[in-house]
Amino acid sequence: MWHVGIDVGGTFTDLFAENSETKEKRSAKVLTTTSDRSLGVIDALNSAFIPPNEINVLVHGTTTATNALVERKYPPVAMITTEGFRDVIEIGRQRRQHLFALRQKRPEPIVPRRLRFTLNCRLSASGKDIREFDHEEARQIAQRIKDLNINSVAICLINSYVDDQHEKIMREVLLQEHPECYVALSAETVRKFREHGRFSTTVVRAALLPVMSQYFSSLSTALDESGFRGSLLALKSNGGMMGVDLAIERPEELVESGPAGGVAYARYLSQTTNFPNIIHTDMGGTTFDASIVDQGEGLITHDYELEWEVPITIPMLDIRSVGAGGGSIAWVDAGGSLRVGPQSSGSEPGPACYGRGGKEATVTDANFILGRLNPTLGDKMRLDSKEALLAIEGVAKKLDLDPLETAEAIISITCENMAQAIKLVLTDRGRDPRDFILASFGGAGPMHACQIARAMNIPRIIVPTHAGVASAFGATAMDIRHDLEGFYYSPLAETNFDHLNELFGKLEDQGRQLLTRDGVNDEDMSLQRHAQMRYIGQFWEVMTPLGGQLINKDSINDIADAFHMEHESEHGVKSPDFPVEFVSIGITAQGSFKKSRSTEFSEISSETIKVGERNAFFSGSWEDVPIFVGEKVSSGTKIEGPAILEYKHSETVLPPQTYAEVDQAGNLIITLA
Amino acid sequence: MMSIKNAIKQKSSKKPRKIQKSNKKSVAKKSSKSIDPITFAVILNRFKTIADEMTITMEKTAWTSIIALARDYSVAIYDYKARQVCMQDALPIHTNSMHVVLKEISETFKDNIYEGDVIVTNDPYSGNTHVGDFVTATPVFHKGKHMFWSVAKGHQLDVGAYVPNSVAIQASDVWQEGLQLPPIKFYEKGERCEDVVRMYLANVRWQEWLYGDLMAQLGSIWTGERRLKELSKEYGNAELEKYMESILDYADRRMSEEVKSYPDGDYHGVSWLDSDGKGKSNIKIGAKVSVRGDKIHVDFSNSDPQNASGNNGSRGVMQAAAGIPILCTIDSTIPHNDGVLRHITADAPVGSVCNAKYPASTAAATVGPGDTMQEAVWKALAHAVPDRVMGGNGKDGNLPMLHGVDRRGKKDIDFGMMLFNAAAAGGASATCDGWPYFMTSAGMGGLKIMSVELCELFYPFRIDRQEIAADSVGHGKYIGGPGIDFCLSPVGGGFQCELFGEGQSNPPFSVMGGMPGIGGGSYKENLRTKKRKYYSSKGRFELAANEIWVGVSSGGGGYGDPLEREPDAVLESIIDGMLTVESARNIYGVIISKNPMTVNLKETKALRKKKRKTRKPREITSPNIPGAATWVKENLRAGDEYLLDAH
Asked: Is A437 helix (H, G, I), strand (E, B) or coil?
């Protein structure tokens, strides 16, 4: 039987599969079918010749949710909120993105003002009824929503994180009047304070409910018809996965579904190699993603924003993106300085060397004229050297440089941009680059990895075997994971232990139920407690792990110590004399999943299969560079740069003064001299 | 692959050379100083990342909402000559004037500046903005040479003024506005001057929080110091200085092109402060913007004499306020360093409201006076570069400082906080509607408001309403951002409110034929008697347990003629409850047919044509008279009181 991971991206749908009996591995890359993305899944299976009836697990990552939100393509959504707070999702927390740029448009709110209704009832911060729920008012709103033929509603009331009774009654009333309606409650979507984040996340859920339900139903139908009878799971933004039944109910957890697969691969590497701390990087055509895997776990953020001022405050992997990719365009600004990106040639027309009408010089063109890129992109197309050169010369003339120097400069500047993005993630999360190895994924990533690492002073790089289909591979290496949150606000010194344990107990019960629904057995479940804590008087919390056991007065010092340590690791400072408090609590419920992964020992052989040579330009001179087939280089092989390793879906460039060794699992470990 | 190589060899007349960072005779022939474009881009980028890192340190570790949430702070990197090398996209009023205070610091200590020093000051007569802004600067040395200054400025929640407010607008002189710190050392050669720090803390309220903020600020400049040292080590002092110079020249070149695109000439703009804070209304600020080639000079001579209150400009603020609008009209990707700033000079007579004379108080300099100077400059620019300006921004009316005792818990706790949630909006530009919550031109929308739920959890009050004030905007082809309709109730007992704002009797102006914002205002209402007391933009009052405070803030100024707004956009506003059908007809000349609501294009066209013929010509800026706001007049009922500058 096959264990399959499929990632449906913006341009390509990637597949990775492993056979649990024969240990055979297969991968595929097909074009994404944007009209109906589920078709791409079937295409990918066909292209890898995997019979659907021989699949027992299919894990699936998709950008469908993200696209629907970004393009605002979802059926109309209504919002019911508290009187006086109709505009929370529109006015936001403010803060313009660029202070000195006057011509900035505000992002469209997910729900327009006309569809935001208000209820007069109001709870105080201590959970007291200041104004009671008015059933007649609620009924009228429900009726109105039904009359408008709106079938998806977000109910978002102020202070509902303390008590969700009003939201629940509103849902009852709504479903009585309008039984076919999708409903999302803010207290169920993300039970924590700060209304803007909670409301925004809830309207996102409401907008996605019909979209993802339709998507998964058409995917299930297509798979059913093909003979698939295995379990279908979805990749979540938190780096775990969940069953499709739950994904339909919690679609906001799918927003970073694709990139999460890559991080899962990095996490897998950190658990199967000697490198527990990994910087995960992924360079595609237009964007560069970076995130951190620390001691085997991807770092989580609660501050994700889909767009400026559109936060989704559920726990998600902390993945940062900058506009740098193979398609990034090089240009010379008014002051005569060479710049690269963030504009990109996209897939249409694409880089000049694609010969599809692109005239501007891109990073890919620069790589190509330097001889670093396979001229047929692994038999996908024949690149056009004349167009590439013309484009680069355009930039070169403005700089009064030679085209080769210009091409090297373009690549250096791109690598420098990417390095700075990584640096910012590390700084923001208080991590030291010297403690990490850089893992490079994506079609364009391993081509630049050495230069990025050099700019960051990171001495070592790992290029995994399946870097070109990273998310799909990562999908097959995941566990089931649910992050649940609750509200508990109290100074640590005044903790009511019974109450706190009871709250944790409730979250844990809920976590076990969700895992059970995903088909996880009791003995495979593990639950971890954590709390959002801060120094009393501070405004930002730090997530502090609390372990798994009951909390009593003997645990107070341990909890305080754990907090001081986390604060220091996130922000570089701690103040052990200051009192500490809880702001909210949460649990992570994980279900380990049967993975068919063999330990991937391949044969050790000292023979290195060189398949050819190419002239490539490095630091001012042409060199004859040996070419290897990446998949065929066996464990233990040592390669000295300059060299190029061509894989089926990506390419690794080893510049001069680099040394690479293939480890037992086939990963390339590169050391910079 | 030989084909590509050969193709390139044939095409390229030059022989490829080695590119090395240390190779001085290299590549960019445009520059006589042999600047390698890669190294240039790398170093330019590094400075930005260092400033970003300093910002993150500051924001994430600060203790007061004013820094952690409202982001009322800035960081920047200067060279040893106090020239700005890199600024973060933080508070413009800070970052465009920090070189002024840094020059004073350098001159004060001259040769007594050592590695490990931290010099602080809040003194507006030493080039600082106002007493509430606390400057911390540390010199960065490498191999014994003073290379840079790593600087952060943060607005303190308290400065020990006669009232618990770091913007004591009604202060009579510098001794009332708070503790004055001329440039002094908090650290010398790495050792903390414990006695000095103790003396500072003894003079401020909420000491633990302020100490926390001080630590955050020091953490930030030390981060900068560490990174700048690494950079100096990586490139060597001489090489780094060379590139830094070329970065300034680069910005200079781009700025020069920008200013040359302005038509030469003298342009005038006038604006008004609502009051001095002590009962004197409508204080004039006039700007003359003179463009000559690639230089701009802003002259504020046409302004009233200084006020007998804290509502005066300081030299630092005057310099920054003159420059900010100009920086908004240039390509926003030009790095804002000394190369840009050197194109803009500003002047105002000492003793005028724009540049007060010691010992006059300048407690509110950054906001009211600074914003109003900016307004005068914007209005002047509307005559010079009409397609690059924006409608007026709301000012800091309705941003009360609240303080008192929180009686909700087991024990009573003193509390103090500045509430930004009822802030006014920003103006429209030539292609976009304005943003809500702009707050002040001093911040250009760089500040963040606090969550309602967080406020209600942490502080003894409830927010009953925080919603778009539909009728607050300045209409136009593009409309100003909406103001906020806000209502506050005390919980567990009353507390004090201090209003220190501006821009309510003189509303955000409009440009190019648009309409101004409403100005807005506030009142407190007794829930039993229903009587209201209206306050001008400044005032001190107690909000008792049975009272509510209501603030309606101004929308931003409009850009362009409302008759040119897309009729569909007008219809959308009506459907969203932002505009009435009558206003659509009267202001926008748009006729709406009902059931279903659609634009009647034919009648709209006819009405617009008729309106164009019959109305008065549209003004380039409006209003051009003082006290033009209408909100208070329209809302005051019989029996209500109006208090000007209550204290």
From this structure: strand
